[in-house]
Design a protein that fits this description.
The complex is a heterodimer of chains A (about 150) and B (about 500). Chain A has helices at about 5-25, 40-65, 75-90, 95-110, 115-140. Chain A is about 65% helix and about 0% strand. In chain B, helix 9 crosses helix 20, helix 11 packs across helix 12 (about 275-290) and helix 15 packs across helix 21. Chain B is globular, with a radius of gyration of 22 Å. The chains are: A mainly alpha (about 150), B mainly alpha (about 500). Chains A and B meet through helix 1, helix 2, helix 3, helix 4 and helix 5 of A and helix 8, helix 9, helix 19, helix 20 and helix 21 of B.
């Protein structure tokens, strides 16, 4: 049996789901009339369009030439790149810019399958120094280099 | 009416701004950076412009526009280098150049291919700039009489063109565009004060931030894709010398007509809102193949197959500024971001920009000319430097990109919430790519969402709820007719393909 995890089937379902999710919210808004549209009119129309086109994606799947099994996501890349951004977000207000940069570099470089730890540590320190000088001293962004 | 004397003095204002030292420096920075990322396969224009976007808030907006635009057209030059030497397109609009560029490299004619693309790019850009200078002011004059109905018509045409003339399937692009429109209207409704689709987040009341969205959709997926990549592709073509680049008389003779035809096609698709360089380069390649005496040469290193699409995509890049600057309707996704920059800085793109803000309009036009001359120098005598850059170590480049991306987003509002938005849209963007939805048209919908709703509402208030108002007015009616013909053409082409497939 062919797998159901095909790009166009899942893509179409996702589109319909997003449309339904929006529709659920916009039905609570004032709809108004064509002549005097309320805040709900336009988003409701878009949500319905989204569901229609989503259905279209599923129906057209066999001919689109793009349909196929969903490729395996690069989990390692996703986790560590997102993790790097998350580390930066968690540390910037608590510890300041320099530690946040070091953490972001350390975490995101783990996306590489064979990381070179020495080079990464050097890169982290160098980038932290460079960014503190460039953004805080030269460009005058309103951030603290260190905060504890 | 603006007199010719005014126009000349406006050009003067633009010229004196464009040759000011600050503008020249940023123009140079922009085109150099553009060439750099164009040459690097896997680092795209949209991602770069998004990453640099926050930092441009600290410089004069006019100068930052010059730089961002420079990145855009610079990348259109650089994109072909990796296509020709490595069979790996540096940018999507140079994908078609692989077909004949790489075979030329294998035949030892890679230098000539690089030279011809530089010349074709310059020719295409130069004519594109002339078109921009010639057509934008009269179009702006015409657009002064446009009402909200005309704007609705233009936006619908643009969004349809972006979906139907893309390389992705039409239905999927339509989904993407509508998704963008929905994201665009998140926030407080200006007419009623009602917060819409904010799902309880007060941070979303001012709408989704362009920077967070653009970085999430375009920056993060590219970083992820590059993170797992085999490092250091070594360029095969080390021996590119200036002498080996000089084309023969035969190459010139075969190339100049394809260049001109490519420029024509590119200028048209560039100026059409919603479409851009990629579709233009595909169209002009197909045309050259059809017109050629011996189409079997294509794909085996025909110089026409390099010259035409490169002239075409560069012309499209320049004429994409026509609808962006005169109507405030972006010609393609990068233009949508530039439009966002202008709005953030309080420069209103639209019919009045050309005359009310000659420094911006004519300043940009003159800077494009300067930038293209710089690019010609960067891409012919200095090509060797760029060829060496192709083998840059990605494993150290991408953590640095992550850092710049974080600082950029955070610096706008000193808000951690914006970083979470990047993560969220990063996941959305990554899964869109995985499911083969092209995320680029989304940004077009995002920028146009609020404008479309406002003009749609206003039109129907004015017409007392009569939907026919859009078809009765001559200009908006004609634009809708064009949109209808476009849809009809796509449907007929699809039916014809299916018929032929069944038959044969």
């Amino acid at each position: 049996m062919k797998s159901l995890l095909r790009t166009d089937l899942i893509g179409g379902i996702a589109a319909i789901a997003v449309g339904a999710f929006v529709l659920l919210e916009t039905t609570g808004y004032v709809m108004g009339t064509v002549r005097r549209m309320g805040p709900g009119y336009f988003p409701t129309a878009l949500a319905i369009l989204m569901m229609v086109f989503g259905t279209g994606v599923i129906l057209a799947a066999r001919r689109s030439g793009e349909d196929g099994p969903i490729p395996r996501p690069a989990y390692r890349g996703i986790i560590f790149v997102m993790g790097g951004i998350l580390a930066f977000a968690l540390l910037i207000d608590r510890l300041g810019l320099a530690p946040a940069i070091v953490a972001a570099v350390l975490v995101s470089s783990m996306a590489d399958e064979r990381p070179n730890f020495l080079a990464i540590a050097l890169l982290a320190v160098a980038l932290a120094g460079l960014c503190v000088v460039l953004f805080i001293s030269l460009l005058g962004l309103n951030m603290a280099a260190f905060r504890w | 009416m603006v007199s010719i004397g005014d126009t000349i003095s406006n050009i003067g204002i633009g010229l004196s701004f464009a040759i000011s030292p600050e503008a020249l420096v940023y123009c140079f920075l922009g085109v150099t950076l553009g060439t750099f990322i164009g040459v690097l396969p896997g680092v795209g224009v949209l991602a770069t412009v998004s990453i640099l976007l926050p930092f441009t808030f600290y410089v004069d907006p006019k100068v930052s526009l010059i730089m961002l635009a420079g990145i855009y057209y610079g990348a259109a030059y650089g994109g072909s280098t990796a296509s020709i030497l490595l069979n790996m397109p540096g940018t999507s609009s140079s994908a078609i150049t692989c077909l004949d560029g790489y075979p030329m490299t294998k035949q030892g004619r890679g230098g000539i291919a690089l030279f011809m693309t530089a010349i074709a790019s310059f020719a295409g850009s130069f004519i594109g700039i002339l078109m921009l200078a010639a057509f934008a002011p009269p179009l702006a004059g015409l657009a002064r009489s446009f009402g909200s109905q005309e704007y609705v018509a233009l936006m619908v045409l643009g969004l349809l063109a972006a979906s139907l003339l893309s390389t992705s399937s039409a239905m999927k692009s339509l989904v993407t565009v509508v998704f963008g429109l929905l994201l665009g209207i998140v926030g407080i409704d200006v007419n009623s004060g009602q917060p819409r689709l904010t799902y309880g987040f007060t941070e979303l009341q001012d709408g989704i931030a362009l920077v967070g969205l653009a970085l999430g959709l375009f920056g993060v997926p590219e970083v992820i894709a590059n993170a797992g990549r085999i490092k250091g592709v070594v360029a095969e073509a080390k021996g590119i010398t200036l002498r080996s680049m000089l084309p023969t008389r035969e190459d010139w003779r075969r190339s100049w007509k394809p260049m001109l035809r490519g420029t024509g096609i590119g200028s048209f698709f560039g100026a059409l809102p919603g479409t851009g360089g990629m579709i233009a380069s595909f169209m002009s390649y197909a045309l050259e193949k059809r017109l050629h005496k011996d189409p079997s040469q294509f794909g085996k290193g025909a110089v026409e197959g390099v010259a035409a699409p490169e002239a075409s995509n560069n012309a499209a890049v320049q004429t994409a500024f026509i609808p962006t600057l005169t109507l405030g309707i972006p010609g393609d996704p990068v233009m949508a971001i530039l439009l966002g920059v202008m709005m953030i800085h309080g420069i209103a793109p639209g019919p009045s920009l050309v005359n009310a803000n000659p420094e911006v309009f004519w300043g940009l036009v003159v800077s494009f000319l300067i930038g293209n001359i710089i690019l010609l120098i960067l891409n012919i005598p200095l090509i060797g430097i760029w060829v060496r850059l192709i083998s840059i170590p990605y494993n150290y480049l991408y953590p640095a990109i992550v850092v710049f991306l974080c600082i950029g987003v955070f610096s706008i509002n000193n808000s951690v919430f914006d970083l979470y938005m990047v993560i969220f849209f990063g996941l959305v963007g990554y899964f869109m790519v995985l499911l083969r939805f092209e995320p680029a048209p989304l940004i077009l919908g995002f920028i146009l969402g609020p404008l479309l709703e406002e003009n749609f509402r206003r039109s129907l208030v004015l017409s007392r709820g009569d939907m026919f108002t859009f078809f009765e007015r001559p200009v908006s009616g004609s634009i809708f007719l064009v949109a209808f013909l476009l849809v009809a053409w796509i449907v007929i082409a699809e039916l014809r393909n299916r018929y032929l497939a069944r038959k044969g």
